[in-house]
Each structure stands twice: as C-alpha cells, then as structure tokens.
Specification:
By secondary structure, the chain is of the alpha+beta class. A hairpin with a 2-residue loop joins strand 7 and strand 8. The chain is elongated. It binds (3R)-3-hydroxy-3-methyl-5-(phosphonooxy)pentanoic acid. (3R)-3-hydroxy-3-methyl-5-(phosphonooxy)pentanoic acid (PMV) binds next to helix 3. One of its GO terms (molecular function) is ATP binding.
C-alpha cells in the first residue's frame, strides 16, 4: 500500500565558535585548515526544528524552509542525503505493518520541513543548526546506527560549523588528517552543566540575509566578477556601514567595562555578519551587560538594535 507516512522531528540549537573555523583545505568534503571550538546554545533559542517524512507515495525528495519550498539540488544536501541513505538500516513497525529494508531506503523519497526560530543566513549560524538537525532527523528516520561522531562528519559536509551542533555544551571540531575526511569530526569537550551560569547575549544588529554565503560565494565572486570592486564600495555604505557602527560601539563598551574590572566580565565575538555575540561569565555579569546595552542602544534607536536577549529574559529584571 502507498498509504503510510513515517515522520521524525528533531530540534537542534546553533553554536557560537569561540575558536573560529575559517578556511578550507578541501571545499567538496568541507575539510578545515584548523581545529575549532564552540558553545552550543540551549535548545530553546536560535534553533532549527526539522521534520522529515518518508512515504512510498512521495515521488521525489522535497524540502521546505520556513514554509517555502527550497531546492535540494545543491551538492551539500545531496551529499548529506546520500551519506545517510547509505547507512540506513532495516526498519520494522509491526503494528503499522511497515517494513523497509536497507535496500528499499535507497528508492524511497523524503519530504523535509525545516523552521528556524531566528533570522536565516544572517550570520547567526543558521546553517549550523540546520544541517545538524537535518542529518540527525534523517538518521533517526532511516534507523542509522552510527554514533554522533560519524553523524557529525556527515553534517560537516552540509556546513562545516554544523558538525559541532550535534552536541550540547562545548564541542570541538577536530580538523583531521585524512584526505577522505573520515577523521574530521566533532567531539564533545564538556557538557552543558560544565559552565551552567554562562550567559550568551546576542545583539541582532541586522537580521538581513547575508549577500554571500560564508564560503565559496565570496571567493568565487572575487575571482570571476568584474563588478566586485564596485560592489565592495557600495555595500560598505548601504549595508554594513551602520551595522558595523553598532558592532563597534558594542566592542568599545565591553572593552571599557572589562578594563575597569579586576577580571574580564564579558567576551565578544562575531561570526559571518554584524551581529555581536557577547559571552558573560555569569548571570550577574549578563544582567550588568544588558543594563549597559539598553542604556547605549535603547530599542529602536538609530543603531537599530531591535533585540538584545535571545534567551533567559529574567536576567533583565
Ligand atoms: O559553516 P560555515 O561554512 O557557515 O562557516 C562558519 C564560519 C564561522 O561561523 C564564521 C566560524 C565558525 O567556526 O563557526
């Protein structure tokens, strides 16, 4: 019968690198030129929720991102799907009368619906949460038995930073030595209890989508576009100008405060965009940080810092 549908839903938070991955030694397999370390946010905030479904009545693989259909033609999606399919195991649900053999998985199509509860592709590591969630959900659906290390190496082929989002707490992406990427995996360094009063505050200076992906886009356009120099000039005024101003204010505010204390209270970091990520050593420091931010950037001020806290709003009280 073509009537059955099997579904799995997973939720994966994004991660913020404290030691960044930047630069690839192999673009196809996404192999980095350095190890990186990140903190995974707690699952309530900045996370992706992905449902994957399989049914004999589906005639092709399809995906919807935030409710809009999205092409799966890209190599990164294809690679993740292929890797998971090749590891699928027999599935039996006697109650529902469903039996899928390892071989049959190869010919069954999937439908994927994914939602981000935060701006997509705005330099807030949406692809990290997205690919980690996709790979994890597909692996559960297809009864894949491999461990998280192996799943991390598959998520890595979707988006490098995604491999670290399969773990809570602190994760390290080991660059590995092999050409085939088999040892380029993420491991958990410490779980979420290790530093449980650490607070991460993200100032969403801009939720606009990045104009290029953090990877090939930039380099490709530098190499192939005759307009790239011109573009560089105009984007710096139209897009980045004000937002980086917001970022610089945040940097100087944090630095000034840290200098006035015996030990630094807050660290700051940026990924591929203008949004400032601040890491407070504890809740007290986080509350003081927010007071300062709200003083310097009242909501809807010119700096357009429309939102500050993604997370535990009780620290505002
Ligand atoms: O995983 P990608 O290709 O989106 O690159 C992410 C790069 C940074 O977020 C800037 C750094 C990192 O280690 O996450």
């Amino acid at each position: 019968s073509k009537k059955w549908v099997l579904t799995v839903t997973a939720q994966t938070p994004t991660n913020i690198a404290v030691i960044k991955y930047w630069g690839k030694r192999d673009e196809n397999l996404i192999l980095p030129i350095n190890d990186s370390i990140s903190v995974t946010l707690d699952p309530e905030h900045l996370c992706t929720t992905t449902s994957v479904a399989v049914s004999p009545s589906f005639d092709q693989d399809r995906m919807w991102l935030n409710g809009k259909e999205f092409s799966l033609a890209g190599g990164r999606y294809q690679r993740c799907l292929k890797e998971i399919r090749s590891r699928a195991c027999d599935y039996v649900d006697e109650k529902k009368g469903i039996k899928i053999t390892k071989k049959e998985w190869e010919n069954l199509h999937v439908h994927i619906a994914s939602y981000n509860n935060f701006p997509t592709a705005a330099g807030l590591a949406s692809s990290a949460a997205g690919f980690a969630c996709l790979v994890f959900a597909l692996a559960k659906l297809m009864n894949v038995k491999d461990d998280l290390g192996t799943l991390s190496s598959i998520a890595r082929q979707g988006s490098g930073s995604a491999c670290r989002s399969l773990y809570g707490g602190f994760a390290k992406w080991i660059m590995g030595k092999n050409d085939n990427g088999s040892d380029s995996i993420a491991v958990q360094l410490a779980d979420e209890k290790h530093w449980d009063d650490l607070v991460i505050v993200i100032a969403v200076v801009s939720s606009r989508q990045k104009e290029t992906s953090s990877t090939t886009g930039m380099r490709d356009s530098v190499e192939t576009s005759m307009l790239i120099q011109h573009r560089a000039k105009i984007v710096s005024v139209n897009y980045f100008g004000r937002n980086f101003l917001g970022g610089f204010w945040i940097i100087s505010c944090v630095e000034k405060w840290n200098r006035s204390e015996e030990s630094p209270q807050v660290a700051y970091t940026f990924d591929a965009g203008p949004n400032a990520v601040m890491i407070a050593r504890n809740r007290k420091a986080a509350a003081l940080l927010l007071q300062r931010l709200l003083f310097f950037f009242p909501p809807h001020s010119d700096a357009d810092l429309s939102s500050y806290v993604i997370g535990d709003k009780s620290i505002l009280q």
